[in-house]
């Protein structure tokens, strides 16, 4: 790590933003002029891989330095428990910490905000004091009961449902300006700070502010295009190429709004004299599909538009340049610890797992990805091979699957049980090849160097590079407890709520889940 390391970290997650829709990555529309200018001062990573294709497990990995199967936060167990977070470690080291977001998963009841001195989720219908009070207790009770877990899962989806309702049509109301305002106020009042923000605009549904819609989606009525990915994925709604173009244009407009607000934050940091003393990380937690592979959204697959995400980092130890080597978002946990000279590894509570700084995982270290020198007993599951591999895990998405079933049923469509929709998946990726192990359908493998769009499945074709990736994936699976070979029960329907106490039932009635 450089001795010039800044005292502060600004960590920005652009939720659901594809790499190929950003100007620094060669997009031919000027969606992100501020990120383009930022790229002149930052390292731009061409191959940054997310540990999962959706928000909850990715953020849990960012905050713990663990892969999803290690920290266990997923829709089948939708909260983070028994792990010391990055915010807890930094707060204990004397840093002021804050998390501002409008994403339903990044809240006290999932425990992703544990350790932050300040946090705000900007929900109209689920304010922070409620999330940390009766609902948090009901949430824990329900998740500890197997029969009630589906109801608990739906509570998490409520936030995104509320986002869809309140962000819809003429009532569109992005929370990003408020997130930026709060971030500025927090930094202004801090001596040494770690500010984490999640900007939600590019997540479905797309109802961009008029200024950006007029530039990038002129004439498009956002209330008439398909804004429900489950309708399309279930086969209940067709989308022609003209409508796809409108959807992509709305998406571009949302990204342009994010960029404008980031530009406002960056300009403020410069005006306040904070820019040079702030490490800035900008990434996406995952991307989005707009019809590729006949899918819409970010569920049911591990294709590159979802998991090969944008990543730009400004720090004195990194050159203002582009890098073609592969990195993982899991590495950012160690990079932040390294930048702030914090060792980590001390549990915040008895029995917690706590990951210590490993400089073979830090982007700032000369030893980055030199995994071969790490003793076997000290290796984490991803420290396989020569450091050229990244690993992705995807457990069955209970909430989305339930919604998919409902859309299919309403259209008289039956979803095959042996399909990707019910499947769990794991992938190993190199810059030239990827192998995806799937528990209900045939595995997938692609030569990314020759087939970047992943159209030719070469699993089982005898390609030696593919075989090497498959073998390394098997090593990873062994390290995290074995391959997923036992198909889960197909039933994802809701169960009774008779075991819930009266307070929890009343809360569900107020939220519209019970009559």
Automatic annotation (TrEMBL):
Transmembrane regions listed in the UniProt entry: none
CDD domains assigned to the protein according to its UniProt record, in alphabetical order: sulfatase_like
Pfam families: Sulfatase (PF00884)
Domain Sulfatase N-terminal span(s) in chain numbering: 8-342
InterPro entries xref list: Alkaline_phosphatase_core_sf (IPR017850), GAG_Ulvan_Degrading_Sulfatases (IPR052701), Sulfatase_N (IPR000917)
Protein name: Sulfatase
Species in which this protein is naturally found: Halobellus clavatus
